[in-house]
TrEMBL record:
Enzyme class: isomerase
Family: Belongs to the NAD(P)-dependent epimerase/dehydratase family.
Stretches of the chain forming a coiled coil according to its record: none
EC number: 5.1.3.-
UniProt cofactor(s): NAD(+)
Catalytic activity: UDP-alpha-D-glucose = UDP-alpha-D-galactose
Keyword NAD: yes
NAD(P)-binding domain boundaries: 9-334
One Gene Ontology biological process: galactose metabolic process
Organism (species): Eucalyptus globulus
Protein's name according to its UniProt entry: UDP-glucose 4-epimerase
Record-linked CDD domains: UDP_G4E_1_SDR_e
GO molecular function, one term: UDP-glucose 4-epimerase activity
Short name of one Pfam family: GDP_Man_Dehyd
Amino acid sequence: MGSQEKTVLVTGGAGFIGTHTVVQLLNDGFRVSIIDNFDNSVPEAVDRVRELVGPELSERLEFHLADLRNKQDLEDLFSQTSFDAVIHFAGLKAVGESVANPRRYFDNNLIGTINLYEVMAKYNCKKMVFSSSATVYGQPEKIPCVEDFQLMAMNPYGRTKLFLEEIARDIQKAEPEWRIILLRYFNPVGAHESGRLGEDPKGIPNNLIPYIQQVAVGRLPELNVYGHDYPTRDGTAIRDYIHVMDLADGHIAALKKLFATEDIGCTAYNLGTGCGTSVLEMVAAFEKASGKEIPIKLCPRRPGDATEVYASTEKAEKELGWKAKYGVEEMCRDQWNWGSNNPWGYLSEP
Ligand code: NAD
Ligand code: UFG
């Protein structure tokens, strides 16, 4: 059966990575149902997905306003449609908020996911692609990070990812017919090349690139650079930034792998580029792409931050046949195209 006949449920499909992935799924011929409660997204994002794929493919997209914590919502959905697989993005992801309010994270991320597994099992849909994170490597002792490293949680958000990886492994072990792929994203940035989709954080951004973008459009005065005394080439911390369109394509590769591989079990793959970029290098690349100066303030290190994190990409390349295409230059170009055309995100004005 080709993509044409497959129907995929995308939880959190109105969010940053979800919208970009849904566009690629529809372009690849899948039918898609999104479930989202708009906790961290807006209906306009889904409208723009429809606009980008056009009226014909748009007919293959359904949207359901629902919360994964409400099992009845899920039951209703699964009783109406037969899903071939689920891509599970829905979750809360702000590290600082998870430290201040861990119960919110355990409730949303754990209960929501456990409900999803229950209903999937009941309706015999046992193929899952799960959004994990490089956060499960904690402060890696060695780099690049390889999938079989020991895992560690640094905060309640990271603990939800670690627990959910363990839960996935346990479920698959007990019920071998499950096929589960855990995708560990490194640092997703960039936007759809059209400039119509991108990341639209609520409040002051926690992550580097959305923060830089808001400085560039004048919403924030300067970037705080957290730590300039790391043992790295310029003293700032190093991360593996990955273009969100490469990530989206990584999900399609994972989905195809699930359909094609009976004995995939529960397998984790890194989605990164394998290249490390420092905070100051990222600032310089963004300045070049935008033509804007980004004023910086050197600040103390942010607690819990690792010095250097980047992915080993070998396993995903070999087994999924997927490799990131874009570098930092394209990431900043597309980020700026989105940011300059949508300075207030999906809202037309503040
Ligand atoms: P996002 O917040 O933009 O998207 C998540 C979506 O899930 C949002 O639209 C939100 O409204 C929805 N959602 C949350 N809880 C829900 C619930 N209970 N029921 C229904 N919908 C719900 O985040 P994103 O950046 O697109 O991230 C997607 C996934 O990838 C998350 O699980 C996140 O933890 C993981 N991840 C993200 C990053 C990153 O830097 N963006 C890195 C590693 C992993
Ligand atoms: N940084 C700054 N100034 C900022 C924001 C970030 O200097 O205003 C620095 C950080 O100190 C870090 C680098 O930029 O050295 C990247 O920071 P991000 O917050 O963008 O991303 P992290 O690598 O710290 O990872 C965080 C969480 C992860 C999560 C990831 C993606 O710690 O758990 O974001 O959401 F997976």
